[in-house]
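Extended Data, record TetR family transcriptional regulator
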Amino acid sequence: MLTIDDTAAEAAPEKRIKDRAATEKAIFNAAKALLAQEGFQGFGINAVARRAGCDKQLIYRYFGGLEGLIAAIGEDLGSWVKDRIPEDTGGMFMLTYGDLMERLALSYLDALRCDPLVCKIIAWEVSEHTPQVKQLADARAKALSKWLDKMRGSLAAPKGVDTAAVNAVLFAAIQHLVISGATNGQFAGVALKTARDWDKIGTAVKRIVRGVYG
C-alpha cells in the first residue's frame, strides 16, 4: 500500500522529466532564434539563457555548454533536409537522373526561401571561417549528400558529365539567388520578390537541369 510520501516520491521524477524536456526545448528554440537574428557575434551562453528565461547552468547541464548546443543545432539541420525535402516522390515517377535533380533543385529552392537560419548559415560559409560555422555547414552538406545518395538509387547521370561540378554550380546559384532575394529583392536586374518572380527562377532551373541531364 502506497503512502502519501511514496506517491509523491514516485510522481516527482516524472515532473522533473517533463520540466527538463520543456526546458531543453526552450533553450534549443531560443538558441536557434538568437542565431538567426544575431549570428555568432551575439551568440553566447548568457544571451541564450536570457532568451530562454533560464539559468545558464542548465545549458551546461543539458547540452554540455555552447559547443554541445551548436552540435544539437547541427543535428537539427541534418533533419532539415528530410523534413523540407521528403523522400517520397509526391506522385512524381523519376525515370532519369535528370528527374531526380530537377526535383531536388526545385525543392531546395523552396526550402531555402522558407528558412532564414539556413540562409544565414550559407552566407556565413563564404564570409566567416570559424569552427562553429563549419560544424553547421558540414551538417547541412552531409544531409543533402545522404538524401541524394538514397534517392538516386540505380539512376545514373549521362556519361561524360561531371555531376559534382555541375551540381555544385547549380546549388551555389540557387543559394545565392535566395540570399540576394532576401537582402536586395533582386540579382543582376532580375526581380526576386513575388511568387511570379520565383516561378521564373524555377523555370530557369528546370531548363538548366534538363539541358545538362536531359
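Summary. The chain has two domains: 4-64, 78-213.
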